[in-house]
Design goal:
The complex is a heterodimer of chains A (115) and B (114). Chain A is 0% helix and 56% strand. Chain A is built from no helices and eleven strands. Classes of the chains: A mainly beta (115), B mainly beta (114).
C-alpha cells in the first residue's frame, strides 16, 4: 500500500519559533509538494521539488523554505513562525512522465497552530 | 496565474440520488490532465477520477463520471447513487501550464443526507 506520511498530525508553536514539518514517501517518487489548505481558499502550492536538492517556488513561498536531501523525504521549514501561518499543511508526491502517474498522493496533513 | 472555479461552495443531496459538481478552469495548453480529489472529514485526500484532455471520451469510475467540455473548459463531476460515505470536500485540479503541478479550486463541500 503506497504511503505518504507526515511527522505530526497536530503541532502548536509560538511566534518566532523555527518549525520543521517532515514528509516521507515510500513510492520512490521524484516529485514532492508542500501545500497549505485554508477554508475557502482551497490548496495553495508552497514549494515543489522534482529531484533531490532541486526545488521550485510555488504560489506562496514567502516565509517558507524547503529541504530535500534524500529522495523520499521533503521538509518544510518555517524560519520564524507567525500567526498567519496557522493552517493545515499537506504534503504530496507523484512520479513524472506517464499520464497515470500525474496523480498526486497525499499525506494525512499537519494542522499547525502558531500562538 | 491559472484559475480554477468551483462555483458551488456547498451542496447537499439525499442518499441514492445523483449530484453534479461543477468546475471551470483556464489554460492555454492543448494537452493537460484534470483530476477530482475527495477529502472526507478529518481524513486523507484521495483521487476520485482523472481525465486526459486529448481524450474525447469522458472518464468513468463506478458511480463517478465526468462531463468534460474542452472548448468550454468545463470539467464537472457526477456522482450517481450517492452514499453517506461520499460526504466530503471535493476539489477540481487541472495540471498547470504543461507541468506536473496541479492548480486546485476552492472546493465544494458535499453532504449526503440519509
Amino acid at each position: 500500500d503506497v504511503k505518504v506520511t507526515q511527522s505530526s498530525r497536530y503541532l502548536v508553536k509560538r511566534t518566532g519559533e523555527k518549525v520543521f514539518l517532515e514528509c516521507v514517501q515510500d513510492m520512490d517518487h521524484e516529485n514532492m509538494f508542500w501545500y497549505r489548505q485554508d477554508p475557502g481558499l482551497g490548496l495553495r502550492l508552497i514549494y515543489f521539488s522534482y529531484d533531490v536538492k532541486m526545488k521550485e517556488k510555488g504560489d506562496i513561498p514567502e516565509g517558507y523554505s524547503v529541504s530535500r536531501e534524500k529522495k523520499e523525504r521533503f521538509s518544510l521549514i518555517l524560519e520564524s513562525a507567525s500567526t498567519n501561518q496557522t493552517s493545515m499543511y499537506l504534503c504530496a508526491s507523484s512520479s513524472p512522465g506517464l499520464a497515470e502517474n500525474n496523480e498526486q498522493f497525499f499525506g494525512p496533513g499537519t494542522r499547525l497552530t502558531v500562538l | 496565474a491559472q484559475t480554477v472555479t468551483q462555483s458551488q461552495p456547498e451542496m447537499s443531496v439525499q442518499e441514492a440520488e445523483t449530484v453534479t459538481l461543477s468546475c471551470t478552469y483556464d489554460t492555454s495548453e492543448n494537452n493537460y490532465y484534470l483530476f477530482w480529489y475527495k477529502q472526507p472529514p478529518s481524513r486523507q485526500m484521495i483521487l476520485v477520477i482523472r481525465q486526459e484532455a486529448y481524450k474525447q471520451q469522458n472518464a468513468t469510475e463506478n458511480r463517478f463520471s465526468v462531463n468534460f467540455q474542452k472548448a468550454a473548459k468545463s470539467f464537472s463531476l457526477k456522482i450517481s447513487d450517492s452514499q453517506l460515505g461520499d460526504t466530503a470536500m471535493y476539489f477540481c485540479a487541472p495540471t498547470q501550464g504543461g507541468s506536473e503541478k496541479l492548480v486546485f479550486g476552492k472546493g465544494t463541500k458535499l453532504t449526503v443526507n440519509p
